[in-house]
Amino acid sequence: MRPIADTGILIEFGDQIDDDVHAVVLAMDGAVKDAQLHGVTELIPAYASLFVGYNSLMVSYAMLCEQLEPLLDVQVASDIKPRHWSVPVCYDAEFAPDLGELTDVLGKSESFVTEAHASAVYKVYMYGFAPGYAYLGGVPACIQMPRKSSPVMGVAPQSVMVAGSQALITTVTMPSGWWVIGRSGVNPLQSHLENPFMFAVGDTVGFEPMSTVEFAKYGQI
């Protein structure tokens, strides 16, 4: 555990994307929630760490660390079944501005890349960077590429992007250096709902390919 400014504690469980490590992060997140510790204001699970935010007027760093210490022995539940989401995606050229360049760099066909992308099951590891940006791990190794050397401005909402082992569905217009290979039929940020994030951390996501015609009938274009 280490301090983050004077209002947070970062509990680190590893330094890489790993399902077993992430399971411990989620178990610790649940344990801290259940403990209802005085002064805790927020919990943010990430790939291999848990951020515990607190009100320093209500509890000190040392006192909160002392309360968190016994929870570090938390056991990962073996009976948890994450919710699975099937997300429609159109890989056609008008929604996939980077697909051609990505396939050239990889030396693969567009169908190979899109079929590989759609065949995988992705895990929601964390939220970050922008509202509703759910970071998905699980991009097949055969289509993994580092992010671009420089970002592109104005990437549209609901763009399906990949970089390295991660995938993401954008929710707002933002710059990005990831590879845009399609457009999603849903926006993971549902701002009109009390809980605006469609996916929960720990959920799984699959992509269902659709043609432009099918996608238009879906009502998202």
Description:
It is a single chain. By secondary structure, the chain is an alpha+beta fold. It folds into two domains: 2-73, Gyrase A, domain 2; 84-218, Cyclophilin-like (Cyclophilin), CATH 2.40.100.10. The chain contains five helices and 13 strands. The chain has helices spanning 19-35, 61-68, 99-106, 110-119, 212-218, and strands at 2-4, 8-12, 40-45, 49-54, 84-90, 122-127, 134-137, 152-155, 159-163, 166-169, 174-176, 179-184, 204-210. The strands form three sheets. Strands 5-12-9-10-7-6-13 form a seven-stranded mixed beta barrel. Strands 1-2-4-3 form a four-stranded antiparallel β-sheet, with helices on one face. Strand 3 and strand 4 form a beta hairpin. It is elongated. The model has no long low-confidence stretch (mean pLDDT 92).
Secondary structure blueprint with pairings:
Blueprint: E1 2-4, E2 8-12, H1 19-35, E3 40-45, E4 49-54, H2 61-68, E5 84-90, H3 99-106, H4 110-119, E6 122-127, E7 134-137, E8 152-155, E9 159-163, E10 166-169, E11 174-176, E12 179-184, E13 204-210, H5 212-218
Parallel strand pairs: 5-13
Antiparallel strand pairs: 1-2, 2-4, 3-4, 5-12, 6-7, 6-13, 7-10, 8-11, 9-10, 9-12
Give a quick rundown of the structure.
With 221 residues, the protein is α+β, with helices and mostly antiparallel strands. It has helices at 19-35, 61-68, 99-106, 110-119, 212-218, and strands at 2-4, 8-12, 40-45, 49-54, 84-90, 122-127, 134-137, 152-155, 159-163, 166-169, 174-176, 179-184, 204-210.
